[in-house]
Amino acid sequence: MIDLTDVILNDGKTADYEFQIALPVLSYRFGDFRIIDSSAGVLQIENQGEQKISLTGEIELTVEFPCARCLESVSHRLIVRPELELDLKEKNDYIDGYYLDVDQVIHDEALLVWPERVLCRSDCRGLCVKCGQNLNLGSCSCADAPSDPRMAKILDIFSNYKEV
Question: pTM for the whole thing?
Fold first, then answer.
């Protein structure tokens, strides 16, 4: 929490704040993602008058993601740059009295820079769809056998045009 009393009570006032987040994870409906490391964040908050404030800043987070192909843990860096305008006359999730919940701001803004997918390496081979073997660690016997012998010829055609 950041005390914004001085900024809120003085129209036109601008203040810079350095902060550390206390979030251990980023929790969304698609899972919990552990924050491994974070830099000191900076925020600039400006009272724009008429009970409105603007907030801009930056923080760097290192978050643990599962690889999109093999599900192994991968560290990925997110740079979160919040840019918000808040009307203090309206209820919001970020300000309680004169205090800014910076963890909630960063939590919500991190979703805007969320990667589509994260890979452990660019040539990740993923998991066998039959037995679940991590193909980066070794092959399995079911990887070579087609599930339906009638599909063997079609699979041969597709394997010639396979993308990695």
Answer: 0.75
